[in-house]
Specification:
Length: 151
């Protein structure tokens, strides 16, 4: 297995994996568009100097993804910058092997080399297995987003 930065030639595969993420999260959010829902500007994540999109390959097949993006923090916080984590996805047949942890460690290392030590991610509150996995890595709940739909 090989970790590497994503390249523009990976775009079609990464877009397909993004749809797998959308489908996996659809049960947690009934307002996700039924068609053409996208979460990420993958091309920007590949080319942006403040982003680090990595993939894990097994036999030249991308089996896992994840990115870190250095962002400005809210002015109320005691850190100016943080790393936002996203597109954390492992193909179902490769889960349970600690690959997500390895991806996260590589992104965290990249961020820390840039002087960033604070990390944030979003996870649906009903996605208990993902929450438990992130908690094992040291993450803790911080803020609960609430929504209201009046349609």
């Amino acid at each position: 297995m090989i970790f590497r930065e994503a390249k523009l030639f990976d775009l079609p595969i990464l877009q397909a994996l993004e749809q797998a993420v959308v489908e996996a999260e659809r049960p947690f959010n009934s307002t996700i568009k039924p068609e053409s829902a996208t979460y990420y500007d993958i091309e920007h994540l590949i080319t942006d100097n403040d982003s680090y999109l990595i993939v894990l390959e097994d036999n030249k097949q991308i089996i896992a993804t994840g990115y870190g993006q250095i962002r400005s923090s809210k002015q109320s916080l005691n850190h100016d910058k943080h790393c936002y984590l996203g597109f954390m996805y492992v193909l179902p047949e490769f889960r349970g092997r600690g690959l997500n942890k390895q991806l996260l460690n590589k992104i965290i290392e990249w961020s820390r080399q840039r002087g960033v030590n604070d990390f944030y991610l979003d996870v649906y509150s009903q996605n208990i297995s993902a929450i438990k996995a992130y908690e094992k890595l040291g993450f803790e709940p911080c803020l609960l987003e609430m929504k209201l739909n009046l349609s």
